[in-house]
Amino acid sequence: MTPVSICKGCSRPIIILYNSFETLRPSNQTTKILSWLQPSLVRTNRRSFGTTKARAAFQKPQPKPSPSSNSTSKPSRAAPVPPRSTIVSPAASLQSPRLSYAQKLAAKSSSTTLYEAGPNRAFLFSSYTAGLSCIAGAAVNVLVNVYNVPPGLHFAVPVAFGAVGIAMVYIGTRFALMPAGAIHSIKVLPARSAKASAQAAKATPLSASVVPVRLEIEARRSLPIPGLPLRRFEVDPNNVIMKAPMYNRKAAPSDYEKMLMKQEEAARRQKERDYEMSHLLTAPFRHAARAFGIFFANFRRGLTGEGFAPVIINGVKYKLDITSAYVLEEGRALDRIVRIEEDPALARLAAKKRQP
After folding, report:
1. What is the pTM of this model?
2. What's the pLDDT tens digit per position in 171-185?
3. Which residue among 54, 62, 99, 241 is least packed, with the fewest CB closer than 10 Å?
């Protein structure tokens, strides 16, 4: 048998009629498409959907809780979670905008030197030598002119020599005690130091986000004995009181004044060089005189005590060398950390020095 060929003109009206019937069906009914017209992806999804339905049909239904059990049972409350203690490291606390300048220095891994005095050997030598000389002279005077008085003298003579001996002992003691209380160094201890943290916690209750600030001070002892080790102690910055700021801001010179100063300095150096080269024979004497002048200036400091600024630490009076000491940022760092209670007399004197 030979298959009968289908006329294309006859089959087209049948397809059009079938499509019109499909469009007239309600929207809630799904259209069934022949399996051989569906793509492979749709067929696989339908098979997986069918297997899911079958699995759900074979699952055992779970028993529903009765209303009585719901009324008696109370909802379980979640156990409270304890708050985690956050420890702020010094490096992380540096990001806080409220962190002070002292706390930034304390957050470093090593100590920061704010102040360090020079050796001052001539000052120490002059002080101890003058004190020892006065005390020795007073002792000889009392032994010779008070206890071994020659016969025939008036009774007032030993009394006068005794008074002179007491005055010499007082002056010698003052000279010998001139270096006492002189601060050698002031440092900001790091916050990681266990000793600084323990003492700061005892002093004030601090939170974890606050960096403790402690100062380490080395000063000379009160006993006028050369060679004694320095006294080292820690103190809170609020207990350090200065009578005047270390940094004295001077009026900035103008560009014309700076040019004149440079020209004068260059002219002075050229003049000194010309004189040095033209008088070579007397150069050693000039250098010796210059060295003797520096030594005499330090010796005079040991006798008069000039060049020191008073500072009170925990109610005890100490002194800072303001002539030959190293200070961080020209003294501005120390001024920002410790307390400053200006003396009116010192304030007026500093104002006069600032005036041109």
Report:
1. 0.59
2. 999 999 999 999 999
3. 62
